[in-house]
Specification:
Blueprint (H helix, E strand, L loop, with lengths): L2 H8 L9 H13 L7 E5 L4 E2 L2 E2 L3 E11 L4 E4 L14 E6 H4 L3 E2 L21 E2 L2 H6 L5 E11 L7 E8 L15 E7 L6 H20 L8 E7 L3 H9 L7 E7 L8 E4 L7 H10 L4 E4 L9 H4 L8 E5 L18 H20 L2 E4 L20 H11 L8 H8 L3 H13 L3 E4 L9
Parallel strand pairs: 7-8, 11-12, 11-13, 13-16, 14-15
Antiparallel strand pairs: 1-10, 2-3, 4-5, 4-9, 6-9, 10-12, 14-16, 17-18
Helix pairs in contact: 1-5, 5-9, 7-9, 11-12
Bound molecules: zinc ion.
Length: 442
Amino acid sequence: MQLKLLLEKIYPLHRTLASDGTDEALQIVGDAMPAAADFAIETYSPGASIWTWQVPERYMVHEAYLETEHGQRVIDFADNPLHIVSYSPPVDNILTWDELEPHLFYNEDRPWAIPWHFNYYQRDWGFCLSKNVFDNLSRDARYRAVIRSEFFTDPKDGGFRVGAGVLHPEGGLVPEAEAKAGEFLISSHICHPMQANDDAAGVVTAIEVARRLVENPLPSGSLSVRFWFGPETIGTIAYLAHNEDLIPKLMGGIFAEMTGNKNTIAWHHTRQHNHLLDRITSHVLRNTDHVERNFADFPPNDERVINGPGVNVPCISINRWPYDEYHTTDDNPDIIDEEMLQDAADIIEKIVRIYATNYIPKRRFRGPLFLSGNDLWVDWRENFELNRSYEKIMMRFEGQHSIFDIAEDVGLDYWMVREYVEKFRAKGFVEPLPIPGEAPEF
Ligand SMILES: [Zn+2]
């Protein structure tokens, strides 16, 4: 299915930290993910401690509207879930304009659009509306503000949910005892109500990467790739706090969002800044039109958790921010372009394929290797550049260089060098060493 069609199924739902709409979105993701990923939803109990945070309550809005004292309806949640501030507590009050105004939110720059506001932790109720509607409201009238919302703490009422699936390389998962490789994490948040680019776009781009890894699996011995979907920040905290054993296995990550609008791709460095993952990303985007930002520059997302204190998995972020429609009703399928979604998947796929297949070839021979006697000599008539470089490649088998570093040093394509190194490996002349992770001592 076209990614944009899939996005259009997720887009209109009333998604938030935990709600029926979020569950439905996770279901759609589960149906779209390849079966091999074994996508599964995890449910956590609201109120449970997760590091320094708590699992939030589940939220439901039965109805919400603003009307004049005489019953003329001005705003109705049924028309658009953006009309209320996410996680607004219940209210049913008659108010003067002066009492009402602090609870109204609009976007000065886009007077026709409804902005999206949220107030997950300092709970106060509020309505969002276009500046045009705001300007036309009578200042003399009295208004009735009604929000019939409900917070659920019992996990039997649905709890707080995230979903994840893992794709293993060819030949399946390496047994735990031998597992040197670990996993790469691709993460997208799913909690923005009725928002297309931020955040359904990142979700469908990630699904496309999963499909491609099933069509053309990573070779045996590569990292597995874990795909994660859930509410921004708190969802990742809840997931990692409930799955702490996973942290040392995670070797790197990409957070993807806002991949569908017509703008150049931007990437944010890892917290390490010059990590192998940064260098591979630079390599993939070399000679392309792109923007480069520092870790946690705006817009910061779940990479602050993944690559944050006590977790520290090197994680870049990919997006097409800025775009003017951000966090308003104008962030809808009209601004989404299939090619942009696919192109972001291309970039992520290229980074993941290199990162997940890269290893450190460690020498297991002494003296200059008898290349022609071992079928390793490269004929200059067949591959002139590799013929010029094989000595330099062999000199880098001392356990200091990964295949990617060797390819960069000698100025050759990663895949050409990898294919050559694999021939040494097949004959037992090099042993593949994993690239060490960055997980801190906790
Ligand atoms: Zn956002």
